[in-house]
């Protein structure tokens, strides 16, 4: 079928494929095809292709539909992927092993399958895992063109929040001071630095900060990102009145750190405050806590109340985007 394709010399094929994939422009419905020294890479939106690349119409064959775990078991399955690790959440060990086998027998590029064995625990926000297939819990996850190395055994990371992270990061302006209070391996901090923000990223988990620094190197943002290992309450004094934007992604207990956020906030600062609350009053507790911490030193204006996802029956993970303006 005639479809829009980027035409490049074969020697430039892999670099161009990666570039288009990172921009989410590759059309997976059609196969990449070679012909007389050229490669034809199908794209979803010809107008969005960078101008220096050549777009042509080419008769690209339909791509073979990959075999999925659902195809193998004949039913819809629930699992998540982080790089080449798949995550399931099953109470029945036999059922977990059945799903794991279907995942590795499918066409998914998965090397390890793990089952959640505990809830998130302790100050370092880690959980226990049962390894069902493979050995390595370390992987490299790709999200909106950025790479994040991590080890599920030692750090917290949720792929479910990718869209929410992207929403926040898209608001960052070049030169803006961004303070990430609970940074983990950097899924907010690194894209913010890539957009030109000056980022300070703090986490209590030593392993997470080691990965954060590695990920800063992977994504070429070391010049704009300062990674700090420690309790953010101890770190904040060095960044008094500094931040134009603060990320507080620590649901369940972010309210305990609002006094620290006020210390870090500059004269005009946007706060992204994450919370988990009952459906009957998703935003009220967070808004009241922010006002109690920030007023009267700051005028408090809620710019967006956003439900991020369902967390548990009748409970929701939410975000308040709040502008603090010094009175």
UniProtKB/TrEMBL annotation:
InterPro entries xrefs: MeTrfase_TRM5/TYW2, SAM-dependent_MTases_sf, TRM5-TYW2-like_MTfase, TRM5/TYW2-like_N, Trm5a/b_N
Record's keyword annotation contains S-adenosyl-L-methionine: yes
GO MF entries: tRNA methyltransferase activity
Keyword check for Transferase: yes
GO biological process, one term: tRNA N1-guanine methylation
CC terms in the record's Gene Ontology section: cytoplasm
Coiled-coil region: none
Domain SAM-dependent methyltransferase TRM5/TYW2-type as annotated: residue spans: 79-326
One of the Pfam families matching this protein, by short name: Trm5_N
Record's keyword terms, sorted: Cytoplasm, Methyltransferase, S-adenosyl-L-methionine, Transferase, tRNA processing
Protein name as annotated: Methyltransferase
Native organism: Haloarchaeobius iranensis
């Amino acid at each position: 079928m005639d479809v829009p394709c980027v035409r490049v010399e074969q020697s430039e094929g892999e670099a161009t494929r990666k570039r288009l994939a990172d921009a989410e422009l590759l059309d997976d419905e059609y196969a990449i095809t070679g012909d007389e020294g050229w490669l034809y890479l199908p794209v979803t939106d010809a107008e969005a292709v960078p101008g220096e690349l050549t777009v042509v119409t080419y008769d690209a064959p339909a791509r073979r539909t990959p075999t999925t775990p659902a195809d193998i078991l004949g039913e819809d399955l629930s699992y998540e992927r982080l790089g080449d690790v798949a995550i399931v959440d099953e109470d029945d060990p036999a059922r977990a092993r059945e799903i794991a086998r279907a995942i590795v027998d499918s066409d998914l590029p998965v090397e390890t399958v793990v089952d959640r064995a505990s809830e998130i625990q302790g100050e370092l926000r880690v959980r226990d895992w049962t390894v069902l297939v493979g050995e390595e819990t370390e992987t490299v996850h790709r999200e909106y063109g950025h790479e994040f190395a991590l080890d599920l055994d030692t750090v917290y990371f949720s792929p479910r929040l990718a869209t929410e992270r992207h929403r926040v990061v898209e608001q960052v302006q070049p030169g803006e001071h961004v303070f990430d209070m609970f940074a983990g391996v950097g899924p907010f901090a690194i894209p913010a630095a890539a957009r030109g923000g000056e980022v300070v990223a703090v986490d209590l988990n030593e392993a997470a900060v080691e990965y954060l620094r590695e990920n800063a190197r992977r994504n070429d943002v070391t010049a704009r990102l300062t990674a700090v290992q420690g309790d953010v309450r101890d770190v904040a004094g060095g960044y008094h009145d500094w931040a134009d934007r603060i990320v507080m992604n620590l649901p369940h207990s972010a309210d305990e750190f609002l006094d620290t956020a006020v210390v870090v906030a500059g004269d005009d600062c946007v706060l992204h405050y994450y919370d988990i609350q009952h459906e009957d009053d998703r935003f009220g507790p967070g808004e009241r806590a922010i006002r109690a911490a920030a007023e009267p030193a700051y005028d408090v204006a809620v710019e967006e109340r956003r439900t991020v996802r369902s967390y548990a029956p009748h409970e929701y993970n939410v975000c308040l985007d709040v502008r603090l303006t010094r009175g």
